[in-house]
Amino acid sequence: MLSxxxxxxxxxxxxxxxxxxxxxxxxxxxxxxxxxxxxxRALFGLVCLTAVxxxxxxxxxxxPYPYDGMDVAVKNQGSSIAHWFGTDQFGRDTFTRVLYGAxxxxxxxxxxxxxxxxxxxxxxxxxxxxxxxxxxxxxxIVDIIYAVPAMVYMILLxxxxxxxxxxxxxxxxxxxxxxxxxIVRSQVISLKEQEFSVAAFVMGASTRRILFRHLLINSxxxxxxxxxxxxxxxxxxxxFLSFIGIGISAPMASLGTLAQDAKMQLEIYPMQMxxxxxxxxxxxxxxNFMGEGLEEALNPKGKR
Amino acid sequence: MDQPVIKIEDLEKSFKVKSxxxxxPARVRxxxxxxxxxxxxxTLGLVGESGCGKSTLGRTILKVHxxxxxxxxxxxxxxxxxxxxxxxxxxxxxxxxxxxxxASLNPRFTVGELIGEPMEIYDMYTRAExxxxxxxxxxxxxxxxxxxxxxxxxxxxxxxxxxxxARTLALDPEFIVCDEPISALDVSIQSQIVNLLxxxxxxxxxxxxxxxxxxxxxxxISHRIGVMYLGYLVEVGEADEVYSHPLHPYTKALMSAAxxxxxxxxxxxxxxxxxxxxxxxxxxxxxxxxxxxxxxAKPRCREERPELKEAGGSGRQAACLLLEG
Lengths: 304, 325
Fold this sequence. Notes:
The structure holds two protein chains of two kinds. Chain A is an all-alpha fold. Chain A has one domain: Orthogonal Bundle (MetI-like fold), CATH 1.10.3720. Chain A has helices at about 5, 30-40, 40-60, 95-130, 130-145, 150-160, 165-190, 195-205, 205-220, 220-245, 255-265, 270-300. In chain A, helix 4 (about 95-130) packs across helix 11, helix 7 crosses helix 9 (about 205-220) and helix 10 (about 220-245) runs antiparallel to helix 12. Chain B folds into two domains: about 5-95 and about 175-325, Rossmann fold (3-Layer(aba) Sandwich), CATH 3.40.50.300; about 105-165, no CATH class. Chain B contains eleven helices and twelve strands. In chain B, strands 6-7-8-3-9-10-12-11 form an eight-stranded mixed β-sheet, with helices on both faces. Chain B has a four-stranded antiparallel β-sheet with strand order 2-1-4-5. At the A-B interface, helix 8 and helix 9 of A face helix 2, helix 3 and helix 5 of B.
């Protein structure tokens, strides 16, 4: 018969440490980042967007041509070494104008989204946290604003404030924050019943602390994702307004006005239309890919 | 000295339930005229079926829910009508341990931030001092202080419950509502947590309201036990007394359902099987709340509602008409 010694061996010292955590000490942000990088499309989106943003900021500064400098001698040219994207009907350098237009479009996209973000998060957060009658009133106001098509607000604002960057931004913001408010509200409502928010309340935490440090920080995932989808939406809306001729007016340029200017000569010089439209597509694709990637990275349970 | 830490009188709490927007909202009466007191260093165990209002009672005492009636006295001060600002100094002294160690810790906080948060709220100590305090607390509850920068999802259920306990202790409370602190844990871990709670109680003279449905564990930790049924407190008494000689028919049935480790004793014991379901709390029976399932119910029980009265001596109380004779 075998003795127990032959079946068992003594436990080594390190194996006794049952409290040991094998996982690397990773912060939440780094964890999300590593998952984001594993998604090739999202990474591609990030690289393209960064490139466009850098070019839009610094390109017009470096370019030898001013965005509104006309030169009739070289009008309607194709691509060349001097004019990479050719020139338009007034001999303006299309490359410079596309970069400048991208700058305006991106600025409108980011600023409008930032405004929507702040209003939407505060509005939805307060409605969700306070709840009851106040929530009912706040959400009915939202329904009323939402009931009128966004385009109506924008066109009315253009009439009132004239066609410029600010009226476009305000137009986008009038009803743009509503989706954000709804998302944040539903998040806050489900999170405030969780025990950790009750725990914070029992500790004596202030409403502001519970709302910001406990509820909103845990809604960050859906908020970030909807931001990455709001930016292309804003850019698209601006391009659309400019294309139908009620957005930004000349000599200022956005990607939408460039497409609008090229419309008249579309049959003769199609390249003038293709460049700005290509940049719009690139930016919107990039942002959508990034949004998708972030959604996956922030939601590890939804991983394939 | 003999003043109870917590004393509640006729506490009531009900919730509106909306079934459709056209009907008048009905009210679920979760806590009905409950009176009890807890002395310094004492543990009062609260048992009862799911949905009998144990947790609601615990949360109403801490004013997570505003009470609809009755009084809550904390060391003689009536805190029932206190506003949130007035409650602040009292919040520090009465705390809560939660059932679910997964849901009760904010997933975006590190252990250090979690345990340090209560001190941050009351602006106690400097940052550096707080960190030292947090490490001390971690040692008290048996966590490794080097894990201070870890996130809660990296810990096991038992470890997380310790984090929750450390957070509760950070404010040096005098009274803690333990809302089923062990029911989400493995049996082997349960005893560790219960021993930890007992150790801390002995060191700091804490008072607990210990809510659970594991009858064996409640008997082990509690000095006195309260039994709840449909939002009513039906019996209170010394833990061993209530276990060995239950007075109320519901308590008798409940105790006979507790698992008995000795098979011979288990065979000898008579189990009382209750018939039917708990009545809908929207529609509590008119007389004794237990009359629909009570094996000894008399016609009188369906008419008259019994009150919690002295019964059987040694400070025991029960709410049953049969005991009044």
